[in-house]
Amino acid sequence: MKRSLLILIFCCFATLSKGQTIKDDISGTWFTKTKNLKVEFFKSEGRYFGKIIWKSPENKTESRIGDVIISDLKYISPEAQYQSGKMRAKKFNLDCKVKKDSPNTIIITVSKAFMSRKLVWTKADR
User: Fold this and answer.
1) How large is the average pLDDT for residues 13-38?
2) Report field, pTM of the whole predicted structure over 0.85
3) What is the CATH number of domain 26-123?
4) Which residue ranges make up each domain of the chain?
5) Where are the alpha helices (H) located in 1-126, listed in sequence order?
6) Which among 96, 75, 77, 78 is positioned nearest to 86, based on CA atoms?
7) Which candidate, 69, 78, 52, places its Cα nearest to that of 110?
8) How far apart are CA 73 and CA 83, in angstroms?
9) How far apart are alpha carbons 107 and 118 in whole angstroms?
10) How far apart are CA 24 and CA 103, in angstroms?
11) pLDDT, the chain, mean
């Protein structure tokens, strides 16, 4: 009886913790605000990274397809956001954190010293 109760409790906690990470998962493809870059978020060794997979011809930035522009994001459960990351923008490395606002939008907060800026990206169909 005790054994079945323990198994039931374990299964409930496993299901609950899995549900939280799926709901807040940022893996997938996202458009930047101007929709001139498509960035794919992927997980590697417990951290999340964002790589450019498409660039519009009108985009004149130095970034190239295949460049990893967001790195080392770590999911923090109590805050339901990804923190401690870096975003490469032009020649700067900015501190970066990401929060999933809805199933179709993420808010990326980048900062350097005392300045910060919020970027809203939208989910892209692959």
Assistant:
1) 73
2) no
3) 2.40.128.520
4) 26-123
5) 2-23
6) 96
7) 69
8) 5
9) 6
10) 8
11) 84
